[in-house]
Write a structure and sequence with these properties.
Structural class of chain A: alpha+beta
CATH class of the domain at 3-120 in chain A: Mainly Beta
Strand content of chain A: 15-25%
Largest interface: A-B, 34 and 34 residues
CATH architecture of the domain at 3-120 in chain A: Sandwich
Oligomer: homodimer
Helix content of chain A: 40-55%
Radius of gyration of chain A: 18 Å
CATH topology of the domain at 3-120 in chain A: Jelly Rolls
Amino acid sequence: MYERLKKSLEEHVSLTNDEWELCKNSFRPKRMLKRQFLLQEGDICRELAFIEKGALYSYTVDSSGNKHVIRFAFDGWWMANLHSFFTGKPTRLNIEVLEDSELLVLDRKNHDVLLEEIPAYERYHRIIVQNAYVALQLRVENALGLTAEEKYARLIEQNPEFMNRVPLNLVASYLGMSPETLSRVRGNFGG
Amino acid sequence: MYERLKKSLEEHVSLTNDEWELCKNSFRPKRMLKRQFLLQEGDICRELAFIEKGALYSYTVDSSGNKHVIRFAFDGWWMANLHSFFTGKPTRLNIEVLEDSELLVLDRKNHDVLLEEIPAYERYHRIIVQNAYVALQLRVENALGLTAEEKYARLIEQNPEFMNRVPLNLVASYLGMSPETLSRVRGNFGG
DNA sequence: TCCTGTTCTTGACATATATCAAGAACATTT
DNA sequence: AAATGTTCTTGATATATGTCAAGAACAGGA
């Protein structure tokens, strides 16, 4: 149940056995089924979630009721709304389960304890957020001023797995275009 | 010369005098004039820059030669291309000076020393990146599926200073629209 | 104050993409 | 295997925004 988390930590830092035990015991396992919500608009995000297995995605809903996907997350990734988690303010995001999933969730109190007690955990967290920032910036670069075809081409190049694991209408939303447009673009391509 | 940096650190962590001295001495002051480049496409980003005073912006240039602004940064903010800084790969970004500026720059070696020697520095850096991530995610939320008017409205709400400090054509690029469109939207508004 | 360059506005027109609609392909449940 | 729901494709039409063009407003330097 904790293999993926352990692997993720070990990729970036080394922990003693005691540290790993403390860390491990700070998380609470949580199983979720497809279409369930980890977080809904207006909620306060009280937990960071590590995905042992499965897939989630976060999105906003606009005034016309259209979804806009912000991020997908798969096995071995983290998911949360950091803004809400750190400020305690209600979130504008929904986080929904895409495939039946096994999560490990960590509340703010335990997170803070780990940061205080285990310097390597703080380092791990710094690196994780750093990487998330880099990935998100790439997303911004790929969204600005590209045609629908170019956006699709970059997705195929950088995140080919999205096209397999995620329904087309959600990928379209992630790319900021309609499902029809993505479908047409994909046809011209041979993907 | 180091006031703003000190203030920024003190907002998030406490340092001993010795730690502050070590920190301070790791930076190199650098004055830059409007239109100079801190980084150009193809360069490797070798330094993190803290802006004591002034303003910078980062952007990509597409195949048609159009600029796409990724981010603005003002007094008290950090600017760099983290992807290039941490991987050592050439960047796709340009970072240009918007107003004559005073920077404090920190190379990778010194940054790593500070992370090792001063736990509070690592904490500071974690928090800074965390905040940058939150801000960037907000940018993504505000870019997806909004009309030109809605994007402008959110900018006025969340970053009113941009409209004063930055030429319109760059703000337009930041919002992912043409300068003409921004000009028209602004007319309808009373901004 | 004039001159030069940049920034901003406004109009006319073009186009990429959205929207609406209907059915085909596919998956899941009974 | 039938039934139900979801996902994907394709066509016709509408529209928000881009592009091109020209001049007005403004700023900084000589």
